[in-house]
Specification:
With 123 residues, the chain is mainly α. It has helices spanning 2-18, 20-23, 31-47, 54-73, 75-98, 104-122. Helices cover 82% and strands 0% of the residues.
Length: 123
């Protein structure tokens, strides 16, 4: 089962790192993603009550995604990185639901985190 856990976590860490690109305005994999994340950055800025500008919010979230991705690469830190990310995404899901934001990205991320944790547990 270790092989499956490593493959799933490898895919997850790659997606975490790559998903940082649209947060900083790079239109990857499409302009639609960059547009979605630009709107999300504005929302996060609003949640910070102006403490962060939308650009700062994007870079902050991008930095966190890269950190989680790198944490998942190294097996001894994988579970901690997934649990921390799970806590952040769970809080974000509650706030997104409250504010009427799109829920599909939230459920997708929570599902991916859960899948990686289950495979890690089964190894």
């Amino acid at each position: 089962m270790s092989n499956w856990s490593d493959k799933a976590s490898g895919a997850f860490d790659s997606l975490c790192i790559l998903s940082a690109l649209p947060l900083i305005g790079v239109p990857f994999p499409s302009r639609g993603w960059a547009s979605y994340y630009a709107d999300k950055n504005i929302w996060i800025s609003h949640l910070s009550k102006g403490y962060l500008t939308p650009k700062q919010a994007g870079y902050t979230v991008a930095l966190l995604r890269v950190a989680v991705g790198l944490g998942c690469v190294y097996q001894p830190t994988r579970v901690a990185a997934l649990l921390i990310n799970g806590a952040v995404v769970t809080r974000g899901t509650v706030v997104a639901y409250r504010d009427g934001r799109p829920m599909r990205p939230q459920w997708t991320m929570l599902g991916a985190i859960t899948w990686c944790l289950v495979l890690e547990r089964l190894q």
